[in-house]
Amino acid sequence: MNPEYSPKVVGFLCRWCSYTGADLAGAMRLQYPPEIRIIMAPCTGKIDILFLLQAFEAGADAVFVSGCHEGDCHYVSGNLYARKRVERMKEILKEVGLEPERVEMFHVSASEGPQFAAIAREMTERAYRLGPNPVRREVRTAWLDQRSAAGNAA
Amino acid sequence: MKSQQQGTNPVGAVMVVGAGIAGVQAALDLADAGFYVYVVEAKPAIGGVMAQLDKTFPTNDCSMCILSPKLVECGRHLNIEILAPARVQGIIGEPGNFTVTVNQAARYIDMAKCIACGLCAEKCPKKVPDAFNQGLISRKAAYVLYPQAVPLKYAIDPVNCLYFKKGGKCKACEKFCPTGAVDFSQTDQPRDIQVGAVVLAPGFKPYDPTKYAAYHYASLPNVVTSMEFERILSASGPYQGHLVRPSDHKEPQKIAWLQCVGSRDLNHCDNSHCSAVCCMYAIKEAVIAKEHSKDGLEAAIFFMDMRTMGKDFEKYYWRARDEQGVRFIRTRIHSVDPVPGTDDLSIRYLDEDGTLRAETFDMLVLSVGLEVAPEVLETGRILGIDFNANKFAETSSFAPVAATRPGIFVCGAFQGPKDIPQSVMEASASASAAGDLLAAARFSLAKKKPEFAERDISQETPRIGVFVCHCGINIAGVIDVEAVRDYAGTLPFVEYVENNLFTCSQDTQEIIKERIKEHNLNRIVVASCTPKTHEPLFQETIKEAGLNKYLFELVNIRDQGSWVHMHEPERATRRAKDQVRMGVAKVGLQQPLREFTLPITKAGLVIGGGAAGMEAALGLADQGFKVHLVEKKDFLGGHALKLNHTWRGEQVKPYVDGLVQRVTKHPQIEVHLNSEVTDVQGFVGNFHSTLSTRGREVEVEHGAAIIATGAHSYKPNEYLYKENPRVLLALEMDQAIREKNPLVTTAKCAAFIQCVGSREPERPYCSRVCCTHSVESAIRLKELNPDMDVYVLYRDLRTYGPRENLYKEAREKGVIFIRFHADDRPQVAQTADGGLQVTVKDLILGLPITIRPDVLTLASAIIVKEQEKLAKMFKVPLNNEGFFLEAHMKLRPVDFATEGVFVAGLAHYPKPLDEAIAQAKAAAARAAVVLSQESIKAGGVVASIDPALCSGCQACVGVCPFGAIDYKETEKVCEVNQALCKGCGTCAANCPSECITLLGFSHKQIYTQIDQALAELKMAAEAAG
Asked: Does A1 fall in a domain?
């Protein structure tokens, strides 16, 4: 059996800016890939690094956090803490041999519908490019095989 | 103003005319303080000009992001009724009891039925220029003002609608509307509305440069106004935020801003005033445009005086000039010429050296001034209020928000050109003034929220009901909603599932309540649109059915589902199922959340006995609240005692004397002279402060505090101050004029030097008042002795707003203005006979000029000292220059992030008396919102620390932006003060022992959501073995 790779992207959005930006993408009918699953929090300051770890453990191929722009945080500075945690998460990914770009911090304001759609596309593209999260063992193996087959063919 | 002179009780309602940011703020302050508010807006939605702006200076905040929550709050406030589109047509009565006639225009859309799906606009065949986007693109005759409009309801524009133009044909909208909301039988409805006061906030209109023939605005598409440029920059604007020029949609490489178009100009228009905001918005647009551009946009601003006199504005200007590479050229552009064969534009100008230059740009932005629209002047005339020479509402400096007709108040750009924070301050000040007048009628008409008995579900297992919305075809057109419903039925703890055509409709609310009872449901999931707009509605519904409102989850399968995956129905359906599974799992773990009430001490503490402090104290006392007024010195009055006149020429002394009298005689005000605050404990509604009066300590209880501690003038070391008796500071000059000091009365020559200590690297801010003050004093000297030679040496003359008229008057009276460079400042020397000699390089002549003034006035900076102590006690921040830093520069100009503490006057930033009074009244209004409540509601989504797990490491204490977490020394654990917690959860994420739970967003709930989001993988892996 050759399990097909359909990536899973998890996005943590703050309620005030980015979630509203994502809504605006909808109101503007901007299309983005449906691989994304959004989890809303009051503030990205609430996003514990453990949530990011949990998402990867549960098989997410890419994970992102999106908060208000710097200085715009409804709760003053939660987004700055989130940024630090994402930076730390990148280090952890490197330490365990995963690509740090599987996790990213973004800042999307409530009026940036197009930017949200662009982020959604960007993270999905990254997930496709980097291939399945290795915890999805079979899918990963199949994807690697396929890639090397394609490489050999070329 | 005393509370109500008439025998009858005043009416506890207020009408706010105009619903831009000023009107919205006034409405919210009034409604929150217990008055019923009618908002009358000419357009079909509220938001005003601020909704059209891209970013706001000086923080570059996204305008819509910061505005939208206020609009939503206004739209769903129990005590605010929005009449839009509507206009005032008449008024009778007297302060406290007016009857206002309002014509509510037909919308031709039934607001109760419209679900804002947009099909009417999609099917409407008639295109019209979209005024919201400044005509850069078109909209339909059936339209919504902007995507985030409040109320989010469509309207039909009868002027353009084919049905009206062609006598009953078309009706495409009616045919396609899925809810039958289109109603062509509607007619305009006149209404007589009884209110106690009227607040006018109809705002401004940008100057129309069509008349400015030399700039060819009407014929050259790449000459745009600043308002058009805002829309061009906006992500939701005509070009989706791509910076392109209108003629050929090419990305511009070079843009110039031309300042003072329709301002400071009596040649092309009658606007002698400065519009006060254009310098800053031009810099902002230039900076943002450069950010937008990929390959280094060149930005140039052509200006006369750079007027960056607000808080943090000067630094913004310097950054733009020194770091972001915006070019500033001091000149007024005479004319614009098209470059033949291209869409480019050429301008010719004299640069500072007097050289004639020509330069070509891809695009020109005209920084258009602010004026009051003719139809608004007409409304003012109907209401019987006066206008000043610049056609803004007439007010006095001492009652800056009172119109000339008692009972009518004004705020925002209608009162004079001004920026957003000043408009917001005045809006709150109007609310305070109306509150004074109507204090006796507080809560007489305002509705109180009904209470519903709550069912105890603590012993029940989850019984979840899932309602999946079709939203007409908005969701059902893409997602297989029946399949989502059936899938929801298979999930754990789900007892009931159902589809609705419109889950948000009024009849569905009744259905949901019935289903809760029938099936004994204890948790509800609705899969429809966004919680931002619809969560409160459904929470209300389940509350009415006896459930705690937090036992609810909204799953967004429209805005973040069908609308963004329109061409992928299968995958969109799969996503919707995942979303429902995540929502069901989350709500299953949800427990009822408690909201609790805390009592409020109905008293205010005002610190500082200057004009701002006294005005704030009276603002609260006149509304019926007890006030403690604390003053360090042994007298009241502060700096105002040293001023002769306001810039409008009103005498200050009688005003201050009157103020001191009213304060000392007021039964509600206790004045504490020779006193300081030495300790502050508690939180909003319940502060306990210690005052020290000459060593004796008193404890006072108060629910709110206003900091109005004032400022000081900088004592210069330069320009022979204190070395030569002929050198005075601005306030000493006032004194000399007042006391008819021979130094002044016998002077044949006088000079002023501006920016002494201001706009310097160590003090990078403009002191805002000095230019106007010096110009005013110069005029006084000319009046004293018309033959006196009076010189003002300046860097940029900042007589902003209507103060520009004073500058003009001074020039007409023969005052000579000489500009100097910051790096080539005037030299002041003492002559052998003890006289003064001032040498300055005249930049026009390029030669040094020598003046021998008999008296020299230094316009020295306004500075603050030692604010740290107070800041620390109240847990509020200071900016780099030591001024108190408000919660938000734009929209919360008198609030702090710490609730219940407010700021006014010079302690916040240098400002003239009229602005300090407005800010003091605003602070009083905001404090009154706190004090007028019976109790404070706290709880709901807040953090909670499990003391059994807490190790007392205090990692949470430091990250909490609201000072809501305290370390309990005795128990060695941390504790959240739920009255202060705002529920961001930053502490929870920072706690190393996971002992902090953000109620409603617990770790367990988020882990569960993550697991459920990825459950498909687990299932697939299990299936694969």
From this structure: no
